[in-house]
Structure prediction request, 853 residues.
Amino acid sequence: MSSIILIRRAYNRSSSSILFRFQSLFIPNSHPQFSTSTVKPQNHASGFDLPSKNVSSSISNERLNFSYRRRLLLFSTQAAVEASTSDGLTVDGIVANQWTILDENESDWKSHASAIAQSICLIKKRLKWKELKVRLELLSFQLEKPDIWDDPVHAGKISREHGTLMGKMKEVNGLEQELLEHIDMIKLAREEDDVDLELESVKALLRMRQSLKEKELEALLAGEHDSCSCFIEVQAGAGGTESMDWAGMVMQMYKMWAQRRGYGVTVVDEMRGEIAGIKRATVRVDGEYAYGYAKAEVGAHRLVRISPFDSAKRRHTSFAAVAVTPILGDGSHHVQISESDLRIERYRSGGAGGQHANVTDSAVRITHIPTGITAACQNERSQHQNKASAMAVLQSRLDQREMVRQAQMNAQYTQSLTDNSWGNQIRSYVLHPYRMVKDLRTNFEVSDPDSVLEGEIDDFILSYLTESMDKENDQV
Amino acid sequence: MNLSIFTKTSILSPTLSSRIILNRSISNSITPTPIISRCYPIPNPPISTNPKTPLFLRPPTFSATLSDLQKWQNWAKTLASSIGSTFTDSDNGPNSENLHRELNWLIEDALENPQFLQNPQFIENPQLQLRAELGDLYELWKQRIEERRPFQYVVGCEHWRDLVLSVEEGVLIPRPETELMVDLVEGVVKEEEDDDDDGLKGGLWVDLGTGSGAIAIGIARVLGGFGRVIVVDLSSVAVRVAEFNVKRYNLQDKISVKQGSWFEPLSGFEGRVAGLVSNPPYIPSGHIGGLQAEVGRHEPRLALDGGEDGMADLLHLCNGAASMLKSGGFFAFETNGEDQCKFLVDHMETVYYGSFYNLKIVKDFAGIERFVTGFRS
Ligand SMILES: C[S@@+](CC[C@H](N)C(=O)[O-])C[C@H]1O[C@@H](n2cnc3c(N)ncnc32)[C@H](O)[C@@H]1O
Prediction:
């Protein structure tokens, strides 16, 4: 059946289109062997690819191969031809049609298609589609220069970015393609009175519609380092035990949030308060997009409550400051640390040391002398590992500092990054006289502080990310 | 209370039990290795007991309910908290915070899935698998607090650099400071261009008074595919433990363990040694009585006592370095601090005038002058 579609499609193109010529070439030998050997899906260049796992399994392999082939053609020729169904319907066309979007349970293909098309448009917007295409062309151009690999570090960066952007581009094009094919299939099924096929295709559309909701979110995390793991640091503000207790609660909130999301959490550095909570602590959060999400938490968090540490039962306001820094992969660091710039100290040690002492505490603090930035770790079981951990924190902080510096030179990003300075009050948690958590940037609020403090902060994060993304887009 | 965990296998005949322990340790080792693959003779083969298997390497054959474990954990926490700064004030021992951290590590080593104790909400089965009986965990923590038994002996291992070394009573627990010895060696080896037999990297290295084998294993890994290492210790427990650790890191073809006193097992190697490292006993005899309880009451005196001024063994090593090292050979010694460092350098510059060059004193991370390094002329 797929060859029927092929032929139909081919006939629908104007004969001047590159696509037409290629497709006509394909038709005579479009047997499976050709499709599998030459045109494999090959967009796994980076970890940024959104998974295309929800591709309908009910559609036969050959049809899939066909879609890959066409997708690939679009890229290899840089053809400006917009993908469309056999009767010329495009994704933009579907959006323009403004078909009513009904509830997911309504088995109406137009409604599904419309929802999907809208999602795709949103994803494109979030990925800054036009800029992405320009950037991609620029990178391709650079990669084609014969001397590019003379500077392997630079070349590596360029080719990584190229791979990442290419992956995103292919992903979105693939989604468009998939949508149009399902529509084609439905039309074909109707023509041929194939009720099963129609039903299956509508189901496939529904699955696509559902999985795209998730992808809309993921598209929010399109920043260069969003997919990285990160460090989250919490520091108690002024105000003694009450604010140390608050800092401890905030840290606990992030630990629980990270666990909920399935991230690994390790305490790297912790200075406890004498009576309660923490003076400061740093945790490492390992997992995909940990930085992308957690960066939305940077700033000062304010608590209002009757302090359990105040015998007079007065209401107190305290602050905890949150900083988040990305853990960049080897080779993508922004700063090269030189050993001679470091001062490495064992702290909390006293006495003669060496054979005199049996200690299990081998805390290490590293100071980067030129910047004065420090990092400490005491939770590892050997000094060597404490040093390695502290180095990772230091590297992350220096990278972040450098990124901010670079961004400040690049006016376009200044806004969003300086907003993230850690003195800015971003959220208010009120336990008394009323109960509410409110984000001061988005005005998003919930009336159940307990669930928030138990780590349910995703809604805050997503509303912030959405809003700042829209803001940025408006500026462009 | 049941203390039999350490001797569980001893009902079997000594040889059989040694097999079992070896097999077990090997099945857990980083790379499986043949049981017997030594081609050098051991003087006085130790007939004594076998190295104890560190807690984290034992099979999780015991179990306890979550609530029983939590009960134990709460009891242990309370005990740790009750210490406050008492130990610190009396002899610079651990405070509550240190003890709490140790308790987490004990849990890490004793439980098959330690994360479940922290996040019980993820547990499907309220039974947790343990590597020791719950009763033993009570006993071990009591020993830690009441007898001040070093934590590393309690769990049978010490994390040192990127290694996890088996340790037990009778062998010194390697110190964090000593990790730097390996960095010092790495530093001189890296500077070298080629790695032929004439150089440092491809040459013969010696670790005298190796204890658990820590420095030697660190060095062997720095040397990579080159060179070889001979380690010496007088203590038979140390020799056994060092052998165990060497095997666990699959370095038995690279590191030979010899029992004997200092240079004695090295006769015939005069002038052929490329690198000599040692952390010999350096505490003045008079200070032994006032040591932190974990050290003074539990660690072997043979590993600590350096004679009246603590310099007896260091001076002996100095003399030996002059005769054993080949020209260009490197040495590094750990000392008790500034005074011993200065004394050693002075000794080498005067008594061995012209024998050594590039003598350096290196500080540890606490800022204490800890190491003396140099090269044989
Ligand atoms: C301070 S410990 C060092 C252990 C190990 N190198 C480390 O750094 O952890 C000193 C070691 O020297 C050993 N030792 C003492 N006297 C010795 C001697 N006469 N010959 C060889 N080794 C000796 C002790 O048994 C002990 O293992």
